[in-house]
Write a structure and sequence with these properties.
Structural class: alpha/beta
Oligomer: single chain
Number of domains: 4
Distance between the termini: 61 Å
Number of helices: 11
Strand content: 15-25%
Shape: elongated
Bound molecules: S-adenosylmethionine
CATH topology of the largest domain: Methyltransferase, Cobalt-precorrin-4 Transmethylase, Domain 2
CATH architecture of the largest domain: 2-Layer Sandwich
Number of strands: 14
């Protein structure tokens, strides 16, 4: 079992190791803070389990997440538990890896860029600044369900140059008041970033005294990071024409509607060109089970119009215990080189590929062969 940090949101901010593990996993267990785009790195046949959206729309209880990870790993599956940011920052990551470890499941933890650092940086807010900020506190007012409430260490936080607050939600006002009461100036710059590094990113600025009202008035929602300190008072880089990224498609959103089994290559090419890709398959390929007649030699042609046609036939031959003799003396036509390559992979060479890779051209080419 690999406990992998997904990074703060944007799919490009996972580590190289994290991505490699995602690409080979049999099972990926994830929750809502993981950017949906990351899931397009998974294998088309990987089992994807969203533990946030269980059938009743409740988060799966923690012990059941542990049982799930252990059960899948014991069944011989390569399991990736993907967690937002860094898995050991406010994410119950230790509990999950400990449960697997105690159950004898081999585990490894792969760090990620925490939202605590990645979200402010992505929004152009440095947490440390030479000569102005060299100490940073990281806190949350949310201790977790079932645990005793605990006052934040405001005095210690007020001593630090920058405060970063995760899961502040409705309690931002209370945190700001606590810091002011502990001696931090009300005029200290403050910023809140919602959905940092994601397409829905929003950022508001204010001071410690005003930030809770600004967030309320602007209607910002979780997930949010609050930063209090000199970095939040620097010029906003995104108010100039924002740099949209790199490549000719930077700043563009592209929806890919191909079936997921066929979209990986195109998605990775589009990303390489700088596009933000939304993977939204509108077609799902399913193979029907229709019995083939036995091996025969009364067919002149067998025609394959797609990769899926080849895949469907191969599955069917396997299911019925048939082999290459099924093709008999028939000649084989493929609509294009990819379909032909797919046939070749199962030991069948196409006799005909039309010059233009379309069904109409295929029919014409076969008719022309018939006449010759
Ligand atoms: C349960 S904690 C998990 C933190 C995570 N392990 C990490 O290292 O980023 C969830 C909190 O992280 C913060 N967070 C995570 N992703 C964020 C994002 N893209 N934008 C803003 N805040 C984010 C929010 O404060 C959210 O309430």
């Amino acid at each position: 079992m690999w406990l992998v940090g997904a990074g703060p949101g944007d799919a490009g901010l996972i580590t190289v190791r994290g991505r490699a593990l995602l690409e080979r996993a049999d099972v990926v267990v994830y929750d809502r803070l993981v950017g949906a785009e990351l899931l397009t790195f998974t294998r088309p046949d990987a089992e994807l389990i969203d533990v946030f959206k269980t059938p009743g729309q409740h988060t799966l209880p923690q012990d059941q997440i542990h049982d799930l990870l252990i059960e899948r790993a014991r069944a011989g599956k390569e399991v990736v538990r993907l967690k937002g940011g860094d898995p050991f920052v406010y994410g119950r990551g230790w509990e999950e890896i400990e449960a697997c470890y105690l159950a004898g499941v081999p585990c490894e933890v792969v760090p990620g860029v925490s939202s605590a650092i990645g979200v402010p940086t992505g929004a152009g807010i440095p947490l440390t600044l030479r000569g102005q900020a060299s100490t940073v506190s990281l806190v949350t007012p949310s201790v977790g369900k079932g645990l005793p409430a605990r006052e934040l260490p405001y005095a210690a936080m007020a001593e630090m140059d920058t405060a970063v607050v995760l899961m502040g939600g409705a309690r931002l006002g209370e945190v700001a008041k606590g810091l002011i009461a502990a001696g931090r100036e009300g005029a200290t710059p403050a910023a809140v970033i919602q959905e940092g590094t994601l397409p829905g990113e929003r950022q508001v600025r204010g001071t410690l005294a005003t930030i809770a009202d600004v967030v309320h008035d602007e209607g910002l929602r979780a997930p949010m990071v609050l930063v209090v300190g000199p970095g939040a008072g620097l010029p906003r880089l995104d108010v100039n024409a924002p740099a949209a990224g790199f490549g000719p498609l930077a700043g563009r959103h592209v929806v890919v509607t191909r079936p997921s089994s066929a979209s990986r290559q195109v998605i990775s090419k589009l990303r390489g060109l700088g596009a933000h890709v939304i993977d939204s398959p509108l077609i799902r390929i399913e193979y029907l089970e229709a019995d083939l007649p036995g091996p025969r030699s009364d067919h002149d042609w067998m025609v394959f119009t797609s990769l899926h046609g080849v895949e469907g036939l191969v599955r069917q031959l396997e299911r019925q215990g048939l082999d290459a003799r099924f093709f008999g003396t028939a000649r084989i036509a493929a609509v294009g080189p990819k379909t032909a390559a797919c046939l070749e992979a199962v030991g069948v060479r196409a006799d005909l590929i039309p010059g233009e890779y379309r069904a109409r051209a295929l029919v014409k080419a076969i008719a022309a062969e018939g006449k010759s």
